[in-house]
Amino acid sequence: MIGHRTARHEAFGMVSARIDDVVNLIPARLSGLLFALASGAPRVALAVMWRDAGHHRSPNAGWPEAAMAGALGVRLSGPRIYAGQLTQEPWVNGACTDPTPGDLQRGLALYFRAMLGLAGGLAALALL
């Protein structure tokens, strides 16, 4: 993966990875806000987003991930395996339970509502 933090890949893709971080700074936060607004619990989703977005190793991925975790009432991220090695990443919304297949369905429905909201908002802007 370009920009992945290993000795082999970091030098190869460091510049492109940092450009990606800068370019996605605003869209990542807006997508988290969109997920929160499309959820049934926007205050909870926003609170988790503000509290836990920085727990993610990516400066941008934590925003929508934390909003989704708060909206669904589940924990995300956490320890995982990269290249055969367990990494101890912090949990996002760690006090909650692991997601279930039903939570995946709810997450997809939330994503769909958020995209409908985005399309509606862009259509309204186009009419101005």
UniProtKB/TrEMBL annotation:
Pfam families: CobD_Cbib (PF03186)
Membrane-topology descriptor: Multi-pass membrane protein
Principal place of residence: membrane
InterPro entries: Cobalamin_biosynth_CobD/CbiB
GO molecular function annotation: threonine-phosphate decarboxylase activity
GO biological processes: cobalamin biosynthetic process
Involved pathway(s): Cofactor biosynthesis; adenosylcobalamin biosynthesis
Record keywords, A-Z: Cell membrane, Cobalamin biosynthesis, Membrane, Transmembrane, Transmembrane helix
Gene Ontology cellular-component annotations: plasma membrane
Localization, UniProt: Cell membrane
Family statement drawn from the similarity comment of this UniProt entry: Belongs to the CobD/CbiB family.
Name of protein: Cobalamin biosynthesis protein CbiB
